[in-house]
Amino acid sequence: xxxxxxxxxxxxxxxxxxxxxxxxxxxxxxxxxxxxxxxxxxxxxxxxxxxxxxxxxxxxxxxxxxxxxxxxxxxxxxxxxxxxxxxxxxxxxxxxxxxxxxxxxxxxxxxxxxxxxxxxxxxxxxxxxxxxxxxxxxxxxxxxxxxxxxxxxxxx
Length: 156
What we know:
The chain is 44% helix and 18% strand. It is built from four helices and six strands. The longest helix has 42 residues, at 100-141.
């Protein structure tokens, strides 16, 4: 696969012809589950991003790799028992249908995680902004410090 790919369309077009329909199906499933998400290429793979990256997917020789980060593989471990998984990856074999319902649940789970993380970030930023505004306001309302009186020049 080419390394200078910048769009999901280009990624799919460069993939093995036999894998393209599965890639398109995965893209459609994710798009329906996260309609406001933006398609990006990250780490050389198609990804969907809202506030942060939600999920990645990529063509491998014998499977479609789905990378929803670490927590969904733990949360959905029972439903993923038929698939090869690692800490942040799920392998869907090409010779099996994609589990649309499960992928949708995982993407929606990631949307909730992403929204929560974004909200936490916003809360952390607000107090810092308020503190900076208070310091700035205090600096402008306090009288200017008088400089030390100048010593009288000594006469010779």
